[in-house]
Design the sequence.
């Protein structure tokens, strides 16, 4: 493999060859300078894009990289993430990593336990379940991902045009269909938005449960498509889904029957958590490989299977973003569920 050490050897050999053949004439020096410039440019590029092996990196004793997702997440089958695990393991072979594995948890609690015990190294999900897992395990948010070609996610709160609703204020005393209790765009984002607009939320077991005039009721539909059907049928006055479904997945014939009541603020669409017990240098190597993965054909193919375009570091306001998200979490945790 063409790496930094081999590049340094090539430069040294070139220098010795030039000495031996007397190439340090005026023209020879010009040629030598051009070659040195080329090699040092290549050296700089490789140094910036490929982390070097370091004896300070402590890999897990199990010798494999384990990636985790939770059942019910946007990409929750092991087959879609296994190429990512395999590609990452191949890149890490120089550190003693022999392979990549995928584990799919049944719940937030199970994933938190796996991260805490070191059974999973990196966990991928949307923001809300990731915050819950982080709170229970101590795992930190280390990266954000562009999923479905989008770096950020927001929720769309909508109603049927035939309902006559035109604003969020019209939702007082009515029911809203939401996807699931651990959905980011189908519960977390719209709930925070409604509460911040001064609308108390109360979970209901049925769309036909009574709702007082001072509150907004909500019930879970189970899927974004079911949320749409519930709104169009009139079972719920409004619904909330992520912008990708509203803008791309839902048919034009369906959205023509809808009216937008609000779009929430945007947050990272996908995040990556690192297990709390991982070596700091090892986490740095993992994140560097992931952020560079989209630049290679093999890496891009693995990302495509995971419906992710690329990974990148949190913005320079990363700490502020994390604090903001945790503030939103504190709001949602106070909302009575069905």
Sequence:
């Amino acid at each position: 493999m063409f790496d930094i050490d081999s590049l340094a050897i090539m430069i040294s050999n070139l220098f010795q060859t030039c000495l031996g053949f007397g190439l340090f004439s005026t023209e020879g020096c010009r040629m030598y300078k051009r070659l040195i410039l080329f090699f040092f440019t290549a050296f700089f590029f490789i140094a910036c894009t490929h982390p070097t092996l370091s004896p300070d990196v402590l890999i897990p004793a199990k010798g494999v990289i384990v990636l985790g997702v939770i059942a019910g997440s946007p990409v929750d089958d092991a087959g879609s993430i296994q190429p990512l695990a395999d590609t990452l393991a191949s890149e890490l072979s120089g550190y003693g990593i022999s392979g990549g594995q995928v584990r799919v948890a049944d719940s937030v609690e199970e994933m938190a336990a796996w991260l805490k015990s070191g059974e999973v190294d990196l966990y991928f999900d949307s923001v809300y379940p990731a915050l819950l897992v982080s709170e229970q395990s101590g795992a930190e948010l280390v990266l954000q991902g562009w999923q479905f070609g989008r770096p950020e996610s927001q929720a769309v709160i909508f109603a049927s045009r035939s309902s006559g609703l035109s604003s969020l204020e019209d939702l007082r005393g009515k029911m809203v269909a939401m996807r699931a209790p651990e959905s980011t765009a189908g519960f977390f984002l719209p709930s925070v938005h409604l509460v911040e607009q001064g609308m108390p939320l109360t979970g209901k077991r049925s769309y036909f449960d009574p709702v007082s005039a001072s509150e907004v009721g909500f019930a879970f539909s189970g899927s974004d498509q079911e949320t749409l059907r519930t709104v169009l049928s009139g079972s719920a006055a409004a619904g909330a889904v992520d912008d990708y479904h509203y803008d791309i997945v839902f048919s034009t014939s369906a959205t023509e029957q809808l009216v937008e009541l609000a779009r929430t603020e945007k947050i990272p669409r996908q995040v990556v958590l690192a297990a709390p017990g991982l070596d700091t240098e090892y986490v740095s190597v993992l994140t560097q490989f992931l952020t560079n993965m989209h630049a290679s054909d093999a890496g891009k193919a693995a990302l495509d299977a995971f419906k992710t375009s690329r990974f990148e570091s949190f913005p320079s306001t990363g700490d502020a973003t994390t604090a903001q998200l945790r503030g939103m979490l504190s709001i949602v945790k106070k909302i009575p569920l069905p």
Summary: Residues 26-49 form the longest helix (24 residues). Confidence is low (pLDDT under 50) at residues 1-7, 42-53. Residues 64 and 99 are 5 Å apart (CA to CA).
